[in-house]
Write a structure and sequence with these properties.
Elements: H1 8-17, H2 21-33, H3 47-63, H4 75-79, H5 126-129, H6 136-141, H7 155-163, H8 165-169, H9 183-187, H10 190-203, H11 207-220, H12 226-238, H13 242-255, H14 259-271, H15 275-288, H16 293-305, H17 309-322, H18 327-339, H19 343-355, H20 361-373, H21 377-390, H22 394-410, H23 414-427, H24 432-444, H25 448-461, H26 466-478, H27 482-495, H28 500-515
């Protein structure tokens, strides 16, 4: 009698193919709960094994995060990092030392810098978020948002939170009880072992057990399977054993040349603060994989982090030759043009993003700024209105109000500017730039004490910015507090060595002190 409907295992596989992982896992659970008599035995790969393997993969896919793209460096990992190679690196060879700019990027007077001392990029990605703070206090005081260089409290903590989904997957407890698994037995079955490894690594976040399984499996494969070597490398990387990870990735590359492995190995070098080695690795990779977008993009990112903006822009253009819808490249080239005083060209890039269907607060915010500086005033306010409407959190709203404050200063409406900067602080109380600009407005009204208090707040929130230090120095000098003025001017010079006004002020103060 012809039964309608699909065979359950095939149905589950169909769900998996259509990325309906929850339904797939539920159907596999039903198959696994059948009494043993009903399960027809295949020669080697029984229905039970197939259902088990499929459910493992479905549960993994639900919480799967691509390891290449996440790079969270916690406060503990940064401050207690023992992998430092050179304490005093040569200029242009380290990501940790800001100010080693080679390619003449725009000065901090034009392009704002992040806490790590690098110019802000056009695109938020993991590495732009983990700028190295110089002190523990600064690391903890920086607000934790996606837009700042505040490190996460601990990277391992982040992974644990990613993995807690596993307890929800079924109410009777975890699907696979890791403590009772005989890993050696599974390592003998390559088909099951790979699914099980991904489950342990991504879903349960148990790196140690995953590493044990991978070590047994690679031994069973007589060290000839490159896939296991990459997985062992990933485990070592998570455990902070970067040199061991490097060995595994190199060995895997010898056996099987893969773009992914090159990207993992470059991550190891960047974590060890060897950007030049990573650059060479990417360039060698491009000889073997010409036109591979991820590799070109990797080179561009490193140049950008090393403050070599012109080279970065060249490589981002190469990315667009291969893939003209690459959002990161378009955004970075756009922001580069904007800060190079070419808002009309930047506007073309951001309009391109809009045509591609990117529709978010950041894009309209940038469009509003480009329109303002390109003197297309009719579009400026409507762009900012739309940005406010699309803002997903208070930090984004604060950014938009801050930029509206700038527009108000530009058209000479200082009362409106004052209101906008105040609204910025309502939404984000740690917005150093807004404190600095409010102080300037207070100073114009002759409120010296308020201005000083605001500048002190700004300089403590953002020691990497030179403006609050410089303004405080000027203000203190005007009211005759020369000692404080000199201290602040020195901080300003440290933050931006090329600032002429700071140098003149320091020279004047030194002459004063010499006369005393």
């Amino acid at each position: 009698a012809g039964r309608m409907g699909l065979e359950p295992l095939f149905q589950a596989w169909s769900y998996f193919r259509r990325r309906k992982f929850r339904e797939c896992a539920d159907l596999c659970s039903q198959l696994l709960e059948r009494p043993p008599g009903e399960q027809e035995l295949d020669s080697e790969y029984t229905v039970i094994q197939a259902a088990w393997s499929l459910k493992t993969r479905a549960l993994t896919e639900m919480v799967y995060v691509d390891e290449i793209d996440i790079d969270q460096e916690g406060i503990a990992e940064m401050i207690l990092d023992e992998n430092a190679i050179a304490q005093v690196a040569r200029p242009g060879t380290s990501l940790k030392l800001p100010g080693t700019s080679q390619g003449g990027g725009p000065s901090p007077a034009v392009r704002p810098v992040t806490q790590s001392g690098r110019p802000i990029t056009g695109f938020v990605r993991p590495s732009t978020q983990s700028g190295r703070p110089s002190t523990m206090e600064q690391a903890i005081r920086t607000p934790r948002t996606a837009l700042t260089a505040r490190p996460i409290t601990s990277a391992s903590g982040g992974y644990v939170r990613l993995g807690t989904a596993s307890m929800l997957t079924n109410p009777d407890g975890p699907f696979i009880n890791l403590s009772r698994l005989n890993l050696a037995k599974y390592a003998q079955k390559p088909k099951l072992a790979k699914a099980l490894f991904e489950y342990i690594f991504h879903h349960e976040n148990d790196v140690k057990n995953a590493l044990d399984l991978a070590a047994l499996a690679t031994e069973h494969a007589q060290f000839k399977d490159w896939w296991w070597k990459v997985q062992i490398g990933k485990c070592y990387y998570r455990l902070g054993l970067y040199r061991e990870a490097e060995k595994q990735f190199k060995s895997a590359l010898k056996q099987q040349d893969m773009v992914d492995t090159i990207l993992y190995l470059a991550k190891v070098y960047l974590r060890l603060d060897q950007p030049v080695t990573a650059l060479n690795l990417f360039k060698q990779g491009l000889d073997r994989f010409p036109g591979e977008v991820t590799l070109i993009c990797g080179i561009a990112r490193i140049y950008e982090e090393m403050d070599n903006i012109s080279s970065a822009a060249e490589y981002y253009k190469d990315v667009l030759k291969q893939d003209n819808t690459h959002v990161e490249a378009i955004a970075c080239i756009g922001s580069n043009h904007f800060y190079s005083d070419q808002p009309e060209i930047a506007l073309r890039f951001y309009r391109r993003l809009l045509q591609m269907g990117v529709y978010n607060c950041q894009l309209f915010n940038n469009l509003g700024l480009c329109c303002f500086y390109a003197q297309q005033y009719d579009m400026t306010l409507s762009s900012f209105e739309r940005a406010l409407f699309l803002a997903e959190n208070e930090e984004e709203t604060a950014d938009v109000w801050y930029n509206l404050g700038h527009v108000a200063v530009g058209i000479g409406d200082l009362n409106l500017a004052y209101q906008c900067f105040k609204l910025t602080l309502v939404h984000n109380n740690d917005y150093a730039e807004a404190y600095n600009n409010l102080a300037v407005l207070e100073m114009r009204k002759g409120h010296v004490e308020q201005a000083r208090a605001l500048l002190q707040t700004a300089s403590s929130l953002a020691p990497h910015m030179y403006e609050p230090h410089f303004n405080f120095a000027i203000l203190s000098e005007k009211i005759g507090d020369l000692q404080r003025s000199y201290t602040a001017a020195q901080k300003s010079e440290a933050a931006f060595p090329g600032h002429v006004d700071t140098q003149q002020l320091i020279k004047q103060l030194k002459e004063h002190f010499a006369m005393l």
